[in-house]
């Protein structure tokens, strides 16, 4: 069954990534109008990632930890939780803070290169986290197949 919390969590994360890509594109030309749009885009990214953090945390505490995690750990791919989920959790904890840092830095720095690099790093982290989510859900599906057989 598809969980609305997981879908919302993932969708908000992707909105955050797209908004940061928008901010990166705006910062390639540093006019006042571009800086204003980049600030808006980075603010959207930060808000989306904070919201994704809340939805993901709610899902983890109320569903994943008590229901999904034990099934994955008992299945044929327990490393999908033990390694991949742990990496995903720890990486994800920093992303909203980094997005806020990007948003706050746009109007305060002289050189945009560090801001661009940080924003690009956050985008790469978001997309890698999406891939990790796929690996974790694969571990769950494999465990369910073993249970059904």
Helix and strand arrangement:
Layout: H1 4-27, H2 32-74, H3 79-105, H4 113-148
Please, what is the average pLDDT? 92
Structural class: mainly alpha
- Approximately how much beta-strand content do the residues carry? under 5%
What value does the Rg take, in angstroms?
Answer: 18 Å
List the uncertain runs: none
Secondary structure tally: strands:
0
The best one-word shape is elongated
**Element order, helices and strands?**
HHHH
Number of domains: 1
Give the helix tally: 4
What profile does the largest beta sheet have? none
What is the helix fraction of residues, given as a range? over 70%
Termini gap: 19 Å
Could you explain the architecture of this structure?
The mean pLDDT is 92. Helix 1 (4-27) runs antiparallel to helix 4 (113-148) and helix 3 packs antiparallel against helix 4. The protein has helices at 4-27, 32-74, 79-105, 113-148. The longest helix is centred in the middle third of the chain and has 43 residues, at 32-74. The chain is an all-alpha fold. It has one domain (4-143). 87% of the residues lie in helices and 0% in strands.
């Amino acid at each position: 069954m598809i969980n609305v919390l997981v879908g919302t969590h993932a969708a908000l994360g992707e909105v955050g990534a797209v908004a940061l890509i928008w901010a990166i594109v705006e910062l390639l030309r540093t006019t006042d109008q571009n800086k204003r749009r980049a600030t808006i885009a980075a603010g959207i990214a930060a808000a989306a990632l904070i919201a994704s953090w809340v939805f993901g945390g709610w899902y983890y505490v109320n569903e994943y930890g008590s229901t999904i995690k034990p099934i994955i750990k008992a299945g044929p791919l327990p490393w999908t939780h033990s390694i991949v989920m742990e990496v995903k959790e720890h990486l994800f904890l920093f992303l909203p803070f980094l997005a806020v840092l990007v948003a706050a830095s746009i109007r305060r720095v002289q050189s945009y290169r560090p801001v661009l690099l940080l924003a690009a790093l956050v985008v790469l982290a978001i997309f890698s986290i999406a891939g990790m989510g796929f690996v974790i859900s694969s571990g769950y599906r494999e465990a369910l197949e073993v249970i059904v057989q």
